[in-house]
Amino acid sequence: MMKQNMLVTMNRLEIDIEMRDLIGQLWKHCYITIASCEGHSSSDAYVLLFGGDGWFEKNSLRYGLRKIENGNCCNQEFLKYLEEIQKLGLDPIKVPDKRKVCRCGAGVNGYSCYRRKLS
Questions:
Q1: CA 6 – CA 37 distance, rounded (Å)
Q2: Segment 12-36 mean pLDDT
Q3: Is the pTM of this model over 0.85?
Q4: Which of 18, 29, 63, 80 could form a disulfide with 38 if both were Cys (CB 3.0 to 4.6 A apart)?
C-alpha cells in the first residue's frame, strides 16, 4: 500500500496509473524520475531516471523495461550542436551539454532511459 502523501504527489505530477507502483519503488531506491509514461495506444511505455542505488538496473526486466543503450549518435549529436554554436560566434567550450536524452532515446549525462515496446 502506497503512503497517502506519495499518492497526492503522484496525482499532482500526473503520473500514469500503470506506472505508480514502479515510480514508488524507484523513489524508495533513491532514483530521481524525470519522465514516465505507461504507453498510450501509439507510444511505448518508458521511464527516464537519474541516480538510484542500482536496484532498477537489476530489476527492470521484471517490469518489462529494457535500458536503451548509448550508440555512436549520442556524442555526435552534441558535436553537431557545438558546430551550430560556433556558427553563431559563441565559444563552444562554455556551452555545457545539458541533454538528458539523445534523439535515439538513450539517456545521456548520467540519465538512463528504459522502454517497453507495445505488443
A1: 18
A2: 84
A3: no
A4: 18
